[in-house]
């Protein structure tokens, strides 16, 4: 099965997986013209420090969305690899589901016109 590139059924998302998510690094990532840009492993630490309001994470989503829009590249996705971070912050994620959903809703309001992809906001067994 041969496919020609670019493929419309695939999305390329570039991510930085540490605390090095500077505006300069993100600008360099955007030169690849990905479908989305995001952050992964460091998110868990950021969420823990700023729970319950996740203000830093919301600020990150807001600023990343602005950088993506200002770059004028075709990126349309803000990606957060949460690795269960929102669920790990509570003793019982089911009992605290409202608070977790409130945090997710707040993140959604910060994304401007971009899509927000959350990977594993809550993982079972954690």
Q: How would you describe this protein?
A:
The protein is of the alpha/beta class and about 130 residues long. Helix content is about 40%, strand content about 15%. The chain contains five helices and four strands. It has a four-stranded parallel sheet with strand order 1-2-3-4. The protein is elongated, with a radius of gyration of 15 Å.
Radius of gyration: 15 Å
Order of helices and strands: EHEHHEHHE
DSSP helical segment count: 5
User: Major sheet: size, sense and barrel closure?
Assistant: 4 strands, parallel
Q: What overall geometry do the principal axes of the alpha carbons give?
A: elongated
Termini separation comes to 40 Å
Strand content: 5-15%
Helix/strand/pairing class, anyone? alpha/beta
Number of DSSP strand runs: 4
In round numbers, the mean pLDDT is: 77
Q: Residue share in helices?
A: 25-40%
| Model regions low in confidence, pLDDT < 50 over at least 5 residues | none
Strand order of the largest sheet: 1-2-3-4
Topology overview:
Elements lengths: L12 E4 L6 H8 L5 E4 L2 H8 L5 H17 L5 E5 L3 H4 L8 H13 L5 E5 L7
Parallel strand pairs: 1-2, 2-3, 3-4
